[in-house]
Predict the structure.
Amino acid sequence: MRLDDIPESGNVEDRRGMKTTGLAAGGGGILIVILALIFGIDPNQLGLVGQQGPLAPQPEASPTSAPRDGYKQFASKVLGTTEAVWNNLFQKNGYGAYKQPKMVLFSEAVKTNGCGSAPAAVGPFYCPADHTVYLDPTFFDELERKLGGSKAEFSQAYVIAHEVGHHVQNLRGYSARADAKRKTRQENEYSIRLELQADYLAGVWAHHAERTFKILERGDTEEAVKTARAIGDNRIQQKARGWVSPEGFNHGTDRQRAAAFTQGLRTGDARQRKLDLFFDEKATPFNPKTGELRNSELFGF
Ligand SMILES: [Zn+2]
């Protein structure tokens, strides 16, 4: 991935190396524990938002040194490209002003402003309440080692762009459509619709970022696709327990996640008609037996 002359976003905060105290016990914060390492879960999706007490005080953070490993710069450049792309696409499609998200780098655990607290084990996530993407960069070591994904730069950029995709969904009302299905029999189906749309939006970002900034180098897209496949529900279930049950899917299968990203990358199409298709039960039916959506325009199958 080529990022040398990309402008850095000013919206990244590096909290790595800070001590977060009183995480589990403190001020109404909820410690979210997830057994499997899954990428893309936001605490909001766990149904915890609204169960919290009054807003917890900020953690007592001692500004010890964040590692000077260049990661903040990398993250700031990737976020910078998402800002440029979505500013432009919001304007072009009449979506109003694009309100830029923030991004927080953390290590071990983090306290959000409205989504409770989370250990690094949840993987990267987006908190809709504070419009912030949370990322512990060591996640990518786990992704590669335990899940067979890629920690190449463009693969990491795809993960960031997926989380920014959740922010776009928040602004455009798609998150609310999935939220409305909570605690119904369609909860997982709508989670899959949302997650696959986020993968598609990551692809749309890549398409326009390449056009504007020429970020792609040989082999980059393959690395991102490798990750999209590695974090498919079927692959994670197979790794975690040795068997697969589609009724437990909530992010999409390996081939469907890869297809959604690839279609976004190929078309760059962020028009409302296209985006609405992900939530159109007639045009894009859900098969509970396979846990997959069907729409040739969105997935090629
Ligand atoms: Zn996600």
The chain has one domain: 12-299. The chain is about 40% helix and 10% strand.
